[in-house]
């Protein structure tokens, strides 16, 4: 099974990641980022295991899930806030019109000779 590598945890790039091995017998595998120089060494027995180890990031995965959840909450609340602001604007306009009518009813003949 060929697993894609997650982006480098330091520079977030994927274009210069390579899985390397050291030694012919009992080879040790690791992942190197040739962009930022990050080296990830693990006790994997194969290239596939090295990729799995490199991609296993429970804290990062939990933080990304929390960020996605917060973005969703923000978008939802921002949408609700925009709807409330729109209603608020419409109500202010109606209030201004009613105040104008009240003023006219209280002083109907001001400025009018008849
Ligand atoms: Zn990097």
Strand order across the biggest sheet? 1-2-3
Number of E-type strands: 3
Number of helices: 2
Helix content: 40-55%
The helix/strand order is EEEHH
Bound molecules: zinc ion
End-to-end separation: 95 Å
Largest sheet: number of strands, sense, barrel closure: 3 strands, antiparallel
General shape: rod-shaped
Tally of individual domains: 2
Arithmetic mean pLDDT = 89
Q: Class by helix and strand content?
A: alpha+beta
Radius of gyration: 32 Å
* Low-pLDDT windows of residues: none
Strand content: 5-15%
Strand-helix topology:
Layout lengths: L16 E6 L5 E6 L5 E3 L5 H9 L2 H49 L8
Antiparallel strand pairs: 1-2, 2-3
This protein binds zinc ion (ZN).
Concise account of the structure shown:
This protein is 51% helix and 13% strand. With 114 residues, the protein is an alpha+beta fold. The protein folds into two domains: 1-56, no CATH class; 57-114.
Structural summary, described in words:
There is one protein chain. A three-stranded antiparallel beta sheet has the order 1-2-3, covered by helices on one side. It is built from two helices and three strands, in the order βββαα. The chain folds into two domains: 1-56, no CATH class; 57-114. With 114 residues, the chain is α+β, with helices and mostly antiparallel strands. The protein is rod-shaped and about 105 Å long. Bound molecules: zinc ion. Residues 8, 10-11, 13, 33, 35-36, 38 line the site of zinc ion.
